[in-house]
Write a structure and sequence with these properties.
The protein is an alpha+beta fold. The protein has six domains: 174 residues, OB fold (Dihydrolipoamide Acetyltransferase, E2P) (Beta Barrel); 135 residues; 179 residues, no CATH class; 105 residues, Sandwich (Immunoglobulin-like), CATH 2.60.40; 105 residues, Immunoglobulins (Immunoglobulin-like, Sandwich); 95 residues, Macroglobulin (MG2) domain (Immunoglobulin-like, Sandwich), CATH 2.60.40.1930. It is built from 15 helices and 51 strands. Strands 1, 13, 14, 15, 17, 18, 19, 20 and 21 form a nine-stranded mixed β-sheet that branches. β50 and β51 form a beta hairpin. α4 packs antiparallel against α5 and α5 runs antiparallel to α6. The protein is extended, with a radius of gyration of 38 Å.
């Protein structure tokens, strides 16, 4: 039985636009931004942003915070009574927030409880509350391919297990297998993160293998409730490896004979899973187990393809973006268009989109259409991968691969047929823009398609055959491939995107003009000219820092930094941007400077202070900032921050006191040691500033004093002062404890304490003897040193013996005392050693203090 066909691709532009609008993919195209920065992720498109759910999360958070405050202020008996209610409220909120992470991670970041509140909760409540964390592990990205609702899925595989990652904006376009650190809010195996650019740090980059033979294992499985076999293993081998239009031959032609597939098909295997569930990781694990049991060596294959009859998963294919081994899941429809697409993901490719700007090729408001490239297997066909994507894989412009010509001066350029295996240039590359922050370059790519080989379905596409196909792509963004429509006024179809002979395209923002001169079976000729750059205004970018929700009490003032970036094109002059704040009624908001003046591409910052009314009710409040181009008021940039007002009762607590250094100090009697005393105010945030009086406790006759006798601190703050301790000059040897207390001046029952130990030691006494009074040549000399601390022998003391000959020549030896305080040093005299009196000095060091003794002997 042959494969089931996937639904026919949508080709009418108006329908695609409607679908894109329904998925929320509209954005503004600015000259300085790359198309990928402007294109919305289909993961975002697939997630419904429910404001009612976010508001419910705010209400639940407010209720939980009130209970936490009540619990922390209660005595132990009342806390025990409140705990069941606190657990119930935390569990209700946990269930809601866990679901919200998947649909609106930005809302979760907005209402996440701060760590200081979580830290004070009982352990059984803590596990129900989200935690700000940074996790390191292996990044995994998969794409679910379906006709409506396709999405990328992100995971972090750590030593403790696999976390799902949910980005509020701009997920990272990384490869599976990349080692990363992810910073966000974690709850029950899921993390909410702000964006790929701000929340993910790459530790180790991996690059997929894209050259030579690619070993693939195709595993055919079916399900215990429906063990059907819709096609034979021979059919599967043909689709992937052996047919003339197999995936292997597709990639051999696309790579210009540099890459192909080889491998095996195993199965069918019936696995212990029903077709009514969708758990693809388990499907893969069970398939691997079955293949291994049948004798397959999975380690011999860098690509695993799991093929099964249609099950409850709504997608027709899914693949990891990169990975070793790379994994692909084929749900029902085993054909080149599906297998080739998923293998493209496995090679490290994201989708090839279309950039729809209405009745113009490029404009101020454009939509990036997922699967929109009708001339690319990573879009919506079985055609060749475009030049931007091939260059990323190394199949163009790398080593022995055909070249791509970078055009940076006016002239006429010829292009070879894109599909042919010749070594001539296959594409032109023209710079469109450079991101001023990252340095990433966005390029125009020009190709000539001629409807041969796997592009044979284009043989009747007169528009494509008569001109040049143009794409945009950005160096540092794997998910930035966009085909451009060079005939936006002609039809509503994406099958006629080419710049045909005799037509011109001009990008006035960068001053480049393309004119198609000729196109035939041998290639095409195009003229590229560079002219003056025009001014194109755009909405400025506005950011507010800190961007995280600020948890403060009513009446508090928070100071932010507002940064404005002028995104006008380089052809524009300096612009002034007026700043305005939008705050709830009764709030005060003001800027350090009411405007900033910036050159195109430049950024400027000013302070922004916000004060909440002292009588404001607890809750979440949004404060907005807009920057308006003073000369062109239609260009406005927006940003906002959230403040959570919480009225907290004052809960006093014992301060924390620390002394540094904290280790025992070994000193002589009469010595002075200077310490640092640090006091931390642990009162709750609802308390006012407190003053803490410092007192010392020392043995009789000792002196102890502080640089300052008190410290005044806000809740949570720490302060330090010097603390000097002097022992009596006549102090007896031994260990002594010196204590410090910090007492809340207004609430003397709250006291913190710390102590240190000083050990008073005297310099050791050393007695030195030799085993004889005189020696002759060849005799052994034994020198003994007895080290005493007072009346007690000193073990483990380091003793250095210095021997001085009559001619003042010196040699030394070092040893350590035993339990009896005795150290022994032996040496042998030489026949010609100088006769006369030899001097011996033994120096012992104990706890930093030294003592010495001397003796002498004669050599005859």
């Amino acid at each position: 039985m042959g494969p089931q066909p996937i639904p026919q691709a949508v080709s009418l532009r108006f329908y695609v636009r409607l679908l894109s609008l329904l998925l929320g993919l509209s954005f503004s195209l600015t000259p300085s931004a790359s198309p990928a920065q402007l294109a919305s992720s289909d993961a975002v498109a697939a997630e419904e942003r429910g404001p009612s759910n976010a508001h419910a999360a705010e209400r639940l958070t407010k209720r939980l915070h009130a209970l936490i405050t009540q619990y922390r202020a209660a005595d132990p008996v009342a806390q025990a009574r409140l705990l069941p209610e606190l657990l119930k409220e935390a569990a209700t909120r946990h269930q809601h927030v866990r679901a919200l992470i998947e649909t609106d991670p930005g809302a979760v970041l907005r209402i996440a409880l701060p760590g200081r509140l979580r830290a004070g909760l009982p352990p059984e409540v803590q596990v129900l509350v989200e935690e700000e964390t940074e996790e390191e592990g292996t990044f995994e990205v998969l794409h679910e391919d379906r006709d409506v609702g396709s999405r990328y899925r992100y995971f972090l595989k750590t030593a403790a297990g696999r976390l799902t990652l949910h980005f509020a904006a701009d997920p990272p376009a990384l490869q599976t297998g990349t080692r990363v650190r992810a910073h966000g809010v974690r709850l029950s195996g899921a993390m909410a993160l702000k964006s790929g650019g701000t929340s993910v740090t790459t530790v180790t980059i991996v690059r997929p293998s894209t050259f030579g033979e690619q070993k693939a294992l195709v595993i055919l499985v079916n399900f215990q409730d429906s063990p059907i076999e819709p096609y034979t293993s021979a059919y599967a081998a043909g689709v992937v490896f052996t047919d003339s239009n197999s995936a292997s031959n597709f990639y051999r032609e696309n790579s210009y004979q540099q890459t192909w597939l080889a491998g095996d098909v195993v199965g069918w295997f019936t696995i212990a899973q029903d077709s009514t569930i969708c758990d693809f990781f388990t499907t893969a694990s069970l398939a691997d187990q079955a293949a291994t049991a049948a004798g397959a060596n999975l380690a011999a294959y860098s690509r695993h393809v799991y093929v099964f009859p249609q099950n409850a998963c709504g997608w027709w294919g899914q693949g990891t973006v990169g990975g070793n081994p790379a994994q692909a899941w084929i749900n029902g429809s085993l054909q080149l268009r599906v297998v080739g697409h998923e293998l493209g993901h496995n090679f490290g490719l994201y989708h090839s989109h279309a950039l729809d700007c209405g009745n113009t090729t490029l404009g101020q408001r454009c939509t990036s259409i997922e699967y929109g490239d009708m001339l690319d297997i990573m879009g919506n066909s079985s055609d060749h991968i475009n030049a931007f994507q091939k260059e990323r894989l190394g199949w163009l412009n790398y080593a022995a691969s055909p070249p791509v010509t970078i055009v940076d001066r006016s002239g006429t350029y010829w292009l070879d047929v894109y599909e042919s295996a010749s070594a001539s240039q296959k594409a032109l590359k023209i710079l469109k823009s450079t991101d001023r922050k990252t340095g990433a370059k966005t390029w125009y790519y020009l190709e000539t398609r001629r409807g041969t080989g796997f592009d044979s379905d284009l043989a009747a596409a007169s528009n494509v055959l008569s001109g040049f196909v143009v794409h945009l792509g950005t160096d540092l963004d794997a998910n930035s491939s966009n085909i451009l429509d060079m005939t936006p006024d002609n039809t509503s179809s994406w099958y006629d995107p080419a710049l045909v002979v005799g037509k011109t395209f001009t990008d006035s923002v960068v001053g480049v003009t393309l004119f198609a001169i000729s196109a035939d079976a041998s290639g095409g000729t195009v003229n590229v000219s560079f002219g003056s750059v025009s001014c194109v205004n755009a909405n400025p970018t506005v950011t507010v820092w800190p961007s995280a929700t600020q948890w403060v009490q009513p009446g508090a003032t928070v100071t932010y930094t507002v940064t404005v970036t002028n995104t006008d094109s380089s052809g524009c002059s300096t612009s002034s941007f007026t700043l305005q704040a939008s705050a709830p009624a009764g709030w005060l908001a003001g800027f350090g400077s009411s405007s900033v003046t910036l050159n195109p591409g430049a950024s400027g910052s000013t302070s922004f202070t916000v004060t909440a009314p002292a009588t404001a009710a607890d809750g979440f409040y949004t404060i907005g900032v807009n920057a308006t181009n003073s000369a062109n008021p239609s260009f406005v940039g927006l940003a906002s921050v959230t403040e959570s007002l919480v009225t907290s009762p004052c809960v006093s607590a014992n301060p924390i006191v620390a002394l540094s250094p904290s280790a025992t100090q070994f000193v002589q009697s009469g010595a002075t040691v200077t310490y640092t005393v640090t006091v931390t105010n642990t009162d709750s945030s609802g308390c006012s500033t407190s003053s803490f009086t410092l007192q010392a406790s020392a043995p009789a006759g000792w002196l102890a004093g502080f640089g300052s006798s008190s410290v005044t601190l806000n809740p949570g703050a720490s302060g330090s002062t010097p603390f000097t301790v002097t022992s009596p000059a006549s102090g007896a040897g031994g260990s002594y404890t010196i204590g410090v207390t910090a007492t809340n001046s207004a609430n003397p029952s709250f006291v913190g304490s710390a102590s240190v130990t000083e050990s008073l030691v005297t310099s050791p006494s050393v007695t030195v003897t030799t085993d004889q009074a005189s020696y002759t040549g060849f005799q052994w000399v034994t020198v003994s040193a007895t080290v005493m601390a007072g009346q007690s022998p000193t073990p483990n003391a380091s003793v250095t013996f210095t021997i001085t000959k009559p001619n003042q020549a010196v040699f030394t030896g070092t040893t350590t005392t035993g339990a009896n305080g005795l150290a022994v040093f032996r040496f042998r005299l030489k026949p010609k050693d100088i006769t006369g009196q030899w001097l011996v000095q033994a120096t012992a060091t104990v706890n930093g203090l030294s003592g010495s003794g001397t003796t002498s002997f004669m050599v005859q």
